[in-house]
Automatic annotation (TrEMBL):
Cellular component, GO, one term: cell cortex
Main location: cytoplasm
Protein name per UniProt: Profilin
Compartment list: Cytoplasm, Cytoskeleton
Family, similarity comment: Belongs to the profilin family.
Length: 132
C-alpha cells in the first residue's frame, strides 16, 4: 500500500476524515495528502515537533494554537504518545506520530470528532510497528 493509499483508503475512505496528510516525522516533506489539504513547511514542522513531544512546541501550541492548512486550531489535548487533538469551531484535526511519519486528519462539522481521532490514532499505531 502506498502512502497515498493510506490517505485515500484508510483515512478519508473511513468517512470520518474529510482530508488528510502524511508527512515525514521530521516535518520536512509531504508523503501523501488529499488534494485540498495544503500544508505549509512551518505547519508541517510544528506538527512534527509537537507529535514528537518537544516541550517548547507544546508550550507554543497551548498558548497560540496550531496552524494547519492556513487555519488556527486551539489545542484540546496533547497525549504523551504524540496524539494531538485540536479544533476550530465545529471542525478539528487529529495529529499522531507513527514510526517514520506524522498523520494529520481533518474532520468537518458533519463528522464525529471521536471517530476521526480513532481513525488517525489506529493508523499511527499500525505504522509504529510496520517496517518499510
Amino acid at each position: 500500500m502506498s502512502w497515498q493509499d493510506y490517505v485515500d483508503t484508510i483515512l478519508v475512505g473511513s468517512g470520518h476524515i474529510d482530508k488528510a496528510a502524511i508527512i515525514s516525522a521530521a516535518g520536512d516533506s509531504i508523503w501523501a495528502a488529499s488534494p485540498d489539504f495544503q500544508l505549509k513547511p512551518e505547519e508541517m514542522k510544528d506538527c512534527a515537533l509537537l507529535a514528537s513531544g518537544d516541550s517548547s512546541a507544546k508550550d507554543k501550541a497551548i498558548k497560540s494554537g496550531l496552524r494547519i492548512g492556513g487555519m488556527f486550531y486551539f489545542i484540546l489535548h496533547i497525549a504523551d504518545d504524540g496524539l494531538i487533538l485540536a479544533k476550530f469551531g465545529n471542525s478539528g484535526v487529529a495529529v499522531a506520530k507513527g514510526k517514520q511519519a506524522v498523520i494529520i486528519g481533518h474532520h468537518d462539522e458533519r463528522q464525529n470528532p471521536s471517530e476521526a481521532v480513532s481513525v488517525v490514532a489506529r493508523l499511527a499505531d499500525f505504522l509504529k510497528y510496520k517496517d518499510f
